[in-house]
């Protein structure tokens, strides 16, 4: 008698016979880049997802790199739109500019460029229009021009998503003619006219101005038609195939795998992402468990890679043991039945910034780096404001040192120079130096400043006070104890003993 449960008895055994896995190296993370400066704009319908200006996108890309996600899919949001979507194929357009910057700062990151006109047209459709009709053949040269422009900027893969007939062949011919013979095409071949795209259209500003996209995107009821689309794209030169959306169309992924020997990419789209986020926010589901189940389902259906907005969830701890400081701490917490809640970035925005302004004696403080504007209220990292009176840099540095009760600080700049307006960001605030300069600060207080950054900043006319990462953040303990005591008067609250991690001899 066959007893299949024999292979499910232990976690090790289940792991050994597991048929499908989701690995970080198989994930592709979408990135929304918009024209402008100093923009980190949350997408309301996609919690946790933001639009970034080029000067701020590295904040997200640093997280992508830290998580070892190997590839991004980039979408551009232009300031200017017109009837012919000229921003898409402008050599100095938002996507082209972003790609060049990414390739300079992250040369090993695989950049996939979405090719479509909908973000760039004033009417919001994916092709040219005449008398209300979306024109197919007339659109193809513009798509090809866009693809070549992206490849020239440094894109590693071209991903046409427009669903015009014959566009893969037109793009392949144009890429080859321009010398990009080895640039692959990842075609949105099985792309359905789905209701799951709503949040994405908020993120990419790409909703159609009239009508819908049912004359070029596929009918959700048609599976055999999807195979025709895939077959035609492969014949025209597609190197990879995208099925979009993923969750409601896993049968399509399976059918493609059964019929074609080509890499398949499942697009876990915005609506699928936002549904999970909404349910998790209400406490109805275990977010990570559901995400992993969805992604493993896509792999089981036949996907080789997954485009998803969820990768940032993978920043959690992959294993717990006593071989590391963090592991030992976690084991102790588990043994003592202690709940651990981390809110570092949250508190940086909604508590620490104001606290740091208070400690550094600012008044009329404003947000230094804006992350969100909601209901007329601005939120973000750091603060910039006026000092009680004009003083020398030496006097202000001494004030900061004494206020934070520090043994030492580093000062870059003329100690006898005058300062009246100051900026502060706790922890490692090097990335906000330009924000502080634009805000008119005479001096910027933060931590983790390296030699060259200090020299360069002074050369730009602003002094720096490096009070250290620990030195600017340890005050959190007493502040949080005070807040918890006010909220829960009967709760016993203890603070762990902390001290500077280094000693100056």
What can you tell me about this protein's structure?
This protein is of the alpha/beta class and 505 residues long. It folds into two domains: 18-315, Aldolase class I (TIM Barrel, Alpha-Beta Barrel), CATH 3.20.20; 344-473, 3-Layer(aba) Sandwich (Udp-n-acetylmuramoylalanyl-d-glutamate--2,6- Diaminopimelate Ligase, Chain: A, domain 1). The protein is 35% helix and 21% strand. The chain is globular. The N and C termini lie far apart (74 Å). The relative contact order is 0.08.
Concise summary:
With 505 residues, the chain is an alpha/beta fold.
CATH fold-level label of the largest domain: TIM Barrel
> Into which percent range does the helicity of residues fall?
25-40%
CATH class designation of the largest domain: Alpha Beta
Find the CATH superfamily of the largest domain.
Aldolase class I
Determine the structural class based on helices, strands and strand pairing.
alpha/beta
Q: Please, what is the average pLDDT?
A: 89
Instruction: Write the CATH architecture name of the largest domain.
Output: Alpha-Beta Barrel
Number of helices: 17
């Amino acid at each position: 008698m066959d007893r299949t449960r024999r292979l499910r008895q232990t976690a090790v055994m289940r792991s050994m016979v597991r048929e499908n896995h989701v690995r970080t190296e198989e994930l592709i993370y979408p990135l929304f880049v918009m024209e402008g400066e100093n923009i980190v704009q949350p997408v309301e319908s996609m919690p946790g997802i933001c639009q970034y200006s080029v000067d701020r996108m590295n904040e997200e890309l640093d997280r992508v790199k830290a998580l070892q996600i190997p590839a991004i899919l980039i979408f551009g949001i232009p300031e200017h739109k017109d009837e012919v979507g000229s921003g898409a194929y402008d050599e100095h357009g938002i996507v082209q500019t972003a790609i060049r910057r990414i390739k300079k700062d992250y040369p090993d990151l695989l950049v996939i460029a979405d090719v479509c006109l909908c973000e760039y047209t004033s009417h919001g459709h994916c092709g040219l229009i005449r008398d209300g009709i979306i024109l197919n053949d007339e659109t193809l040269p513009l798509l090809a021009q866009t693809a070549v422009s992206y490849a020239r900027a440094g894109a590693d893969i071209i991903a046409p998503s427009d669903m015009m007939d014959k566009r893969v062949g037109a793009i392949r011919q144009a890429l080859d003619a321009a010398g990009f013979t080895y640039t692959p095409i990842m075609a949105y071949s099985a792309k359905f006219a789905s209701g799951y795209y709503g949040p994405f259209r908020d993120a990419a500003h790409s909703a159609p101005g009239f009508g819908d996209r049912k004359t070029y995107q596929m009918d959700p009821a048609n599976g055999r038609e999807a195979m025709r689309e895939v077959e035609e794209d492969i014949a025209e030169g597609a190197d990879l195939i995208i099925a979009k959306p993923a969750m409601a169309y896993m049968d399509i992924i399976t059918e493609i795998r059964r019929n074609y020997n080509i890499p398949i990419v499942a697009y876990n789209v915005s609506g699928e992402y936002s549904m999970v986020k909404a349910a998790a926010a209400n406490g109805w589901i275990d977010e990570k468990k559901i995400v992993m189940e969805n992604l493993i389902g896509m792999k089981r259906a036949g996907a080789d890679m997954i485009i998803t907005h969820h990768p940032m969830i993978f920043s959690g701890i992959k294993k717990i043991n006593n071989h590391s400081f963090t592991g030992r701490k976690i084991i102790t917490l588990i043994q003592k039945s202690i709940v651990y809640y981390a809110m570092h970035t949250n508190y940086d925005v909604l508590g620490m910034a104001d606290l740091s302004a208070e400690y550094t004696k600012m008044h009329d403080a404003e947000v230094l780096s804006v992350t969100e504007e909601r209901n007329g209220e601005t939120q973000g990292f750091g603060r910039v404001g006026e000092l009680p009176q004009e003083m020398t840099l030496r006097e202000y540095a001494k004030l900061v040192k004494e206020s934070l009760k520090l043994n030492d600080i580093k000062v870059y700049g003329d100690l006898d120079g005058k300062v009246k307006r100051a900026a502060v960001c706790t922890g490692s605030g090097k990335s906000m130096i330009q924000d502080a300069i634009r805000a008119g600060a005479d001096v910027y207080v933060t931590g983790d400043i390296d030699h060259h950054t200090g020299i360069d900043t002074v050369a730009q006319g602003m002094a720096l006070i490096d009070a250290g990462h620990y030195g600017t953040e340890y005050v959190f303990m007493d502040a949080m104890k005070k807040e918890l005591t006010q909220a829960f008067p009967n709760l016993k609250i203890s603070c762990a003993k902390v001290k500077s991690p280094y000693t100056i001899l």
